[in-house]
Amino acid sequence: MKVVVIMPAYNAAQTLEQTYADIPMAVVDHIILVDDVSQDQTVEIAQRLGLQTIVHVQNKGYGGNQKTCYLEALKAGAEIVVMLHPDYQYDSTRIPELIAPIQGDEFDMMMGSRLSGGGTLAGGMPLYKYISNRFLTMVENLVLGQHLSECHTGFRAYHRRVLTTIPFLLNSDNFLFDTEVIAQTVAFGFRIGEIAVPTRYFAEASSVNFKNSVIYGLNTLWTMLKFLLNRRGLVKFDQFRKPLQQVMSRYHWAEITAKDK
């Protein structure tokens, strides 16, 4: 199965090379970096490393960056797509463990949990983020019917069929995108699993400040409410009902599915 790693990048010049060096190329076929108008040397370093590098004309946000990443990975014929932040916050040496359950058809989506196995606070996660992460994950598990230890990790892997089904283009362009993708994956009947990964928090790693964390938390709860309303048929949301093919142009759909024929 062709494995493509995507890197949604923003000002990752200080950590990109270190992240890249840890990627186990024996199991990775291709790497795509999408730069969201960085103000440092991220693009130059990515090009020097030989990565397929796409540069946004203007900043599209974390979620908007992922939309480009997934479309490009699908066009490249990816059968498994791994999202890896280039800020060295996640241990890329764990990619083989992350994708193995997808390769074995046990799960359709896999997540690297920082809250499984302990060591989260020792790894530098701020206490308020640890508490809010635990609380939001508990709510999401109750609403979505899952048993995940963390729903807010940025280290994920997807089978191609997930990304050619869920309408991720309808999602937010900010950090809420990650939560919406999980809800969509459940709404469309796909299986989600997880592995434990170490926690890394340090000065160069990207992080959401307290104010934006509060906004993110409230938006996560709103997403869960929308999921419930949709599932019970009280309010219909295209985000949880329409497959990707129905929310994008025929031209681009043909482009991302050309290798499926």
C-alpha Rg (nearest Å): 17 Å
* Broad shape: globular
Sketch the topology as an H/E string, one letter per element. EHEHEHEHEHEHHEHH
Describe the main β-sheet briefly.
Answer: 7 strands, mixed
Tell me the distance between the termini.
16 Å
Widest beta sheet: strand line-up: 3-2-1-4-6-5-7
Fraction of helical residues: 25-40%
- What does the average pLDDT come to? 93
User: Runs with pLDDT <50, length 5+?
Assistant: none
Number of helices: 9
Tell me what portion of residues adopts beta-strand conformation: 5-15%
Examine the secondary-structure arrangement and name the CATH architecture. Alpha-Beta Complex
- How many β-strands, per DSSP? 7
CATH superfamily: Spore Coat Polysaccharide Biosynthesis Protein SpsA, Chain A
Helix- and strand-based class?
A: alpha/beta
CATH hierarchy, class: Alpha Beta
Tell me what you see in this structure:
The chain has nine helices and seven strands. It is of the alpha/beta class and 261 residues long. It has a single domain, classed as Spore Coat Polysaccharide Biosynthesis Protein SpsA, Chain A (Alpha-Beta Complex), CATH 3.90.550. The protein has a seven-stranded mixed β-sheet with strand order 3-2-1-4-6-5-7, with helices on both faces. Helix 7 (176-187) packs parallel to helix 8 (210-231). The radius of gyration is 17 Å and the shape is globular.
